[in-house]
Amino acid sequence: MTAVTEAAEPTGPDGRVLSARGQRTRTRLLEAAEEVFSDLGYHEASIVKITEAAGVAQGTFYLYFASKQDVFEQLVVDLNRRVRRAMSEGAASGGTRTERELGGFAAFFRFTAEHPALYRIIRQAEFVSPASLQLHYDRIAAGYVEALQAAMESGEVDAGDPEVIAWMLMGIGEIVGMRWILWSGHDHVPDDVLAEMSRFITRGLAGPGREHE
Amino acid sequence: MTAVTEAAEPTGPDGRVLSARGQRTRTRLLEAAEEVFSDLGYHEASIVKITEAAGVAQGTFYLYFASKQDVFEQLVVDLNRRVRRAMSEGAASGGTRTERELGGFAAFFRFTAEHPALYRIIRQAEFVSPASLQLHYDRIAAGYVEALQAAMESGEVDAGDPEVIAWMLMGIGEIVGMRWILWSGHDHVPDDVLAEMSRFITRGLAGPGREHE
Amino acid sequence: MTAVTEAAEPTGPDGRVLSARGQRTRTRLLEAAEEVFSDLGYHEASIVKITEAAGVAQGTFYLYFASKQDVFEQLVVDLNRRVRRAMSEGAASGGTRTERELGGFAAFFRFTAEHPALYRIIRQAEFVSPASLQLHYDRIAAGYVEALQAAMESGEVDAGDPEVIAWMLMGIGEIVGMRWILWSGHDHVPDDVLAEMSRFITRGLAGPGREHE
Amino acid sequence: MTAVTEAAEPTGPDGRVLSARGQRTRTRLLEAAEEVFSDLGYHEASIVKITEAAGVAQGTFYLYFASKQDVFEQLVVDLNRRVRRAMSEGAASGGTRTERELGGFAAFFRFTAEHPALYRIIRQAEFVSPASLQLHYDRIAAGYVEALQAAMESGEVDAGDPEVIAWMLMGIGEIVGMRWILWSGHDHVPDDVLAEMSRFITRGLAGPGREHE
DNA sequence: GATGAATGAGTGTTCATTCAT
DNA sequence: GATGAATGAACACTCATTCAT
Fold first, then answer.
1. How much is the pTM?
2. In a domain, D12, yes or no
3. How many CA atoms lie within 13 Å of A44's alpha carbon, on the beta-carbon side?
4. I need a labelling partner for B184 at 20 to 30 A (CA). Which of B114, B134, D15, D73 fits?
């Protein structure tokens, strides 16, 4: 997982560093935004709804975010950081490659179940903030790439273009999370689906002891 | 690929069958909607922009569609039907399983390049019309399932849950199309990416002549 | 009751006399208009709804009426003629003044129950067609005035300004019809209410055998 | 005349109590609405016209009223409260029953001349807000009923159904106000009309020193 | 730091009316 | 005589954003 450095000191839209009280208000707003965006989508969400959910006045919003699009982007960055942390922690616990692989997916699915906002918000980003959309996928892909390169070097995985494989794995995770978590309303992907995924991916990546062209 | 038959006779929102002139106007509006939605997204698109693009008056729109959401849904159905037809035609030409598989993907990517609206519109459907969103994916998945079942019966593909595999293939197609067509602005996926995809999927599905657990 | 002569030959908006078929269509439209205006009020009513109720196409409407306001006015004239005929017939049957008086009111209430459109439409006329509104009341008042003058001459009713008395009687009829027919949904005014009305009016008009200032 | 107590604290549509500034704006809007509704009627009136007349922006309207219908209803309540206060004050000054009676009517006619909106708005209420319409009449009738009951107990007026009599008096007031104030454009009902009204009502109610059945 | 009243451009939708067929 | 597709002006209402307090 790459160590992308993100703004450590949260600031207001004018760049001023926030007081302790200010940080609390900002966090309340960001949490409210996650909830409202997740429930209603970007366009149905309104600043009033967000500020009401956060328990502050309308004007207060603009003390912390430059615009509606600005919260959206900060939220994407925030969710992206958290999902990547969850995935790398999930993967870290495993011993064999397969265990790590499954650990990462499982963590991703867990995060999806707990933060449906991730999906729901990202899908809107296409028109709201294309840059955020790409950044989000690029960063997750980078995590896969890094892991794949290590696995290829150690021979656990057959050589190949890690970039392409990374995106395919991400595509699989995305659609399975959508189909078996978001749509079904469950908080985890059924075991047999996970098993099928695992079998497909393991074969696809091949590795030691296998003969292939 | 299943031949799902949909409403042959296009009607107005009141259910009345359209005259020849009416059909022409409806088509102009639908094409304009595809363009405008694709360029601006659902929310930035407006009825005025659509009717201007179609060269008709605002009121005319409501002779053919009950609401903005209605065109959206009809458009999703329309694009869905066309992409499935393209995919099944692309697959039909192939001889071996691999050829058919690649043919289907290639057709999908070609359609994506020609109709970016498909992606851009579908991603908005989450909040605009969740039902349309599911319908779209379900129908495409159904096509994969059908093909997979046939391949499993003939032994070309190892037994497994065709539903899960179908969705994984769809996820791969989706994300590769997004990454290597929409974002790159190219009209086709580079050959080496296709090759990597093919290798990964072929192995993942396994089949005759392979030894596996 | 004065014999106000109204257009005998119904014509189209261009003044052309109607064929037999045309007359039938016009009548269907007028009846549809009465129903729709009565149910929805002038503004909620639309030409489409009227033509649908009449079973003709939209354009046909303008073959018989110059505008929406035009049907409205023709309808007021029509209802006014009918209610006055009903009232004078109701009054004609009575022998004594009181009987005739009650007969007229009873007929008015009956008409109200059968044609709620009368009330509902008239009340909208204030802004739609003030002239129609005045015409309606003036014509009904004229009927009362005529009857009162005759009764004054014969000594059945004390002398007084028949114009003022006519309007008061009309006001009583109006509000009682509204309160005890329209609002209650009954098809007749309860007997005790009628009795109280009768007592009040009889005294108010006074007449032979009474001493007054 | 009953002292019906209504909401003392004016609130916005969300129920929040208004600041001093807010109250001023609300009043400006309500006055503008009275004027515009009165001039143009409910349907021809538009929010733009009202806000322009009030000198505020369109959006401001919705800070104080939930909808066009909402202002309408609040205006009816407001006018109703004011006309009843005027009537009870007009009646309070009189000594004998007849004086009080005439005082009440005179006050009603004065209010009518000053606030034509009362009539013009109420007549539209039939379809805009039937509940407001009934409330308006019911409350005024209640005032008459109370006065009549007192007069009956003291023997000034013959026993009878006060409800029915109240509505008849209201009907008389309504139509006379319409005919001799609104339509004539005068600011008062001519004395001879008032005298005729008085004579008719006095007899109708009868009372001491009269012989009747 | 926080408030919330005010703004005004912008949207989806309706509907009386016209006119080529 | 009848049709119904097309028009386009008009309207109620929303909401991101500003700013005086």
1. 0.87
2. no
3. 13
4. B134
